[in-house]
Structures are given as C-alpha cells and as structure tokens.
TrEMBL record:
It catalyses: tRNA(Asn) + L-asparagine + ATP = L-asparaginyl-tRNA(Asn) + AMP + diphosphate + H(+). It is found in: Cytoplasm. It comes from the Bacteria. GO terms for molecular function: asparagine-tRNA ligase activity; ATP binding; catalytic activity, acting on a protein; nucleic acid binding; transferase activity. Belongs to the class-II aminoacyl-tRNA synthetase family. The keyword rRNA processing does not apply. GO terms for biological process: asparaginyl-tRNA aminoacylation. The keyword Ligase applies. PANTHER family: ASPARAGINE--TRNA LIGASE, MITOCHONDRIAL-RELATED (PTHR22594:SF34), ASPARTYL/LYSYL-TRNA SYNTHETASE (PTHR22594). This is Asparagine--tRNA ligase. Homodimer.
Length: 430
C-alpha cells in the first residue's frame, strides 16, 4: 500500500510503501538509520541487517544523500521521535541516484544557500517554514469565507499607484505607461462597493532599494476591504484575523514549530483584543526611551517600532498618524485635521509592521482635494473618484504582508526564508 509520511499514523503495525528522498543517514554496525522525506514530512527508516536481504542492507549503507527511493516497511510507534513513528524497513528500491549533492549536513554560508535555494527548500527547517506559510494561507481563506467575504483578484499591471510611483517597477503597456502593482487596494475598494466585503491575495512589488531583514522586492499581500466599516470596525477585524492565524498555526503546525525551536508560549498569548497607542503617545514614549532623533511628523523606523513592541506581549496598534506622512486616500480624524484614521499593527519580538490599514475617504470633494494636494492626475484616478460619486459609503480596509507574518510566527530572522524563491535587491536567481 503506497502512502505518504503525513498519513502514516493511520497504518500502525501495517506494511506500507512510501516514495521518498534520502535526507541523511547513519549506520551502526548491523543497523542503518535512514532519514527520509517525501514532501509531506520526515520519518526515520530503520534497516536491520539480519531482517533484510544482503543487497537491501548494502543499498541502505551506500545510498547517497537526496537519492530517490521506494521504501517498504512496517509502521511502528516511536515515542522518542518528534514525529512519533518510524519505519522498520523491509525493502528498498532505488529510483534515481543522486551524486555530489551540494548541500551537505555541515554549515553553509547564506549566499551559498541562496544560490541553491531550489535545493535548500528540501531541508527540514525550510520545509517547516513552508508548511506554516501554507497553513496561514489556508486559515486566511477559512477566516474570510466564514465571515461572508468574497475573494477578488485585482490586476497586477496598473496605470496608477495608490502610494505614488517612486518605488514602482515601470513597464510599457503597448503605448502607455504601466506599473507592477504595489497594492490592490484601490481596485478592492471598487469591489467592496459592488460586493460588500471582499479580500484579495496576490503578489505585490516594491522597487525599494532596501537590504533589511524585513524587506523583499516581491511579496504577497492579503488585502480586505469592507463597505460600511468604520475605523473601529476595521481594527476589530484585524485583531480577530491575526489571532485566528496564530491559533490555527498552533493547532495544526505544532510539529513544524517545534522543528523551528519556536517558543510556543509567546504565540499562545496572541489573543484579541490588542493594545493600542496613539501616534502622539508613541512619540512621547520614544523620547522617554532615549530616542531623541524622532520628532512629531516623522515616520517610525525599525528601532522605533521594536522599542514600542517590546513594551507589550502581543501585537500593538499605533494609531492616528500625521496626515502628511500617509497616502492621500486616508480619512482625516473628525476631531483633528492633522491626523488620519489609520493604524499600523506592529508584531512582537522585533518583527515590525505586519498590517497597515485605515478608514478610506468617502467624500468626493475631499478626495479630489487630496489628489490635487499630492499632484496626482485626476484623469488617471477618475474611476476611483467615481466610487465617491455614485452611492459613496464609509469604508475601511487593510493589507497584511504574508512574509513578515510568517517570519514572526515561525521565529525566522529574515524574510528571505519565508517565501519559496525570494526576490531581493541583488538577487533574481534562481
């Protein structure tokens, strides 16, 4: 019976066959221990010399790393294994022999591993990170579908930019200028006016020349937009969503989190509601912490966000940023014209902003005025203004960066490990 490693717990004390690769091996006299992987998980195969034909034991001792195999054996409970099971091997069939596999069990430098990303993905650590990433995606669809949201796919090629064109990839769209999308938000607002509550999940691009551990050139965003949602409604949805993601990973990926050495207690505490700090108070707090360089009207950098986050045991909202440092579409605070109804959600443990969101301007004249202030062409944004012309309503939305969220939940230091093939400032290979 051919099965996968992930479902092997259903076949205790039964003989099964798995298609797999040899991740590693060691032998001790008359026993060989094979570390096997099949894409769904990892398991140890135990080959005892006296219990298999001579050619099978010889193959077990000589087979090379990353050779592909069919392994037949008896499933046994193994309480010493993190996985909980092992295979008592009866037969081995070599499918394809691997020669001189470049990623050996010794330590390798980051650039070497990035050059071999197509192979590095096979390692136990990278496998665990990708499984958690997949769980976050699965839980995202579940969360929004259960709450009546409709999935909408905004275009990747756009003729305008929600936050200006200085950090966009420019291309030619026949005889017009076009850009790779940095956000699907404007289109999602149009979708919300048609469908009520919507969300998107897709790639976004930032031509930002940054080399920090938090930045990628190409990354994935989850962007919900909701008609008739106030600023407060928006914050409540965000904290419910992030709590849901963390608890789903804890429930369904405990083996992977343990493989990564993640401190589970820090994740178990992630439950809504989340604390909030007004931008004004954040500036005062930073001054008290010795950050004399920051003044009112400045945006926060990584050290500032980390200092604020370290004062809380769960994600924290920084709210009501100055209007001058935020995009044109954000609704002003009705009590203060100099700040807008927006919030950044900062993850704990130094992982920085994982969500940016706001209530959107719904007044036609105000939005038109803001477009003028930002020197944005009205003809390009006419369709966006139309949303305020034909039945405008209060509405809000946010964007969650998938890779930063994966990095935080898995405890991974650099976002380059949280996407299968990262695009970095100096890396387009493989």
């Amino acid at each position: 019976m051919k099965v996968t490693i992930r479902e092997i717990n259903k076949y205790v004390d039964q003989e099964v066959t798995i298609g797999c690769w040899l991740a590693n091996k060691r032998s001790s006299g008359k026993i060989a221990f094979l570390q096997l992987r099949d894409g769904t998980g990892f398991i140890q195969g135990v080959v005892v010399k006296n219990e298999v034909p001579d050619d099978v034991f010889q193959l077990a001792k000589t087979v090379t790393q990353e050779s592909s195999l069919y392994i037949t054996g008896m499933v046994r409970i193994d309480e010493r294994s993190p996985f909980g099971y092992e295979l008592l091997v009866k037969d081995i069939e070599l499918i394809s022999e691997s020669h001189d596999y470049p990623i050996t069990p010794k330590a390798h430098g980051t650039e070497f591993l990035m050059d071999h990303r197509h192979l590095w993905l096979r390692s136990k650590r990278q496998h665990a990170i990708m499984v958690v990433r997949n769980e976050i995606i699965r839980a995202t669809y579940e969360f929004f579908n259960d709450r009546g949201f409709i999935k909408v796919d905004p275009p990747i090629l756009t003729g305008s930019a929600p936050e200006g064109t200085t950090e966009l990839f420019h291309t030619k769209y026949f005889d017009e200028d076009a850009y790779l999308s940095q956000s699907g938000q404007l289109y999602m607002e149009a979708a919300a006016m048609a469908l009520g509550k919507v969300f998107s999940f897709g790639p976004t691009f930032r031509a930002e020349k940054s080399k920090t551990r938090r930045h990628l050139i190409e990354f994935w965003m989850i962007e919900p937009e909701m008609a008739f949602y106030t600023f407060e409604d928006n914050l409540k949805l965000q904290e419910e969503y992030v709590s849901y993601l963390v608890q789903s990973v804890l429930k369904n990926c405990k083996l992977e989190l343990n493989t990564l050495g993640r401190d589970l207690s820090k994740l178990e505490n992630i439950q809504a509601p989340f604390p909030r700090i007004h931008y004004d108070d954040a500036i005062k707090f930073l001054h008290e912490k010795g950050f004399d360089d920051i003044k009112w009207g400045d945006d926060f950098g990584a050290p500032h966000e980390t200092a604020i986050a370290n004062s809380f045991d769960r994600p924290v909202f920084i709210t009501h940023f100055p209007k001058a440092i935020k995009p044109f579409y954000m609704e002003p605070d009705p009590d203060r014209e100099d700040v807008v109804l927006c919030a950044d959600l900062i993850a704990p443990e130094g992982y920085g902003e994982i969500i940016g969101g706001s209530e959107r301007i719904h007044d036609y004249e105000l939005l038109k005025h803001r477009l003028d202030e930002y020197h944005l062409p009205l003809d390009t944004y006419q369709w966006y203004l139309d949303l305020r012309k034909y039945g405008s309503v209060p509405h809000s939305g946010f964007g969650l960066g998938l890779e930063r969220t994966v990095a935080w939940i898995t405890g991974t230091e650099h976002v380059r490990e949280t996407i299968p093939f990262p695009r970095l400032l100096n890396r387009l290979y493989p």
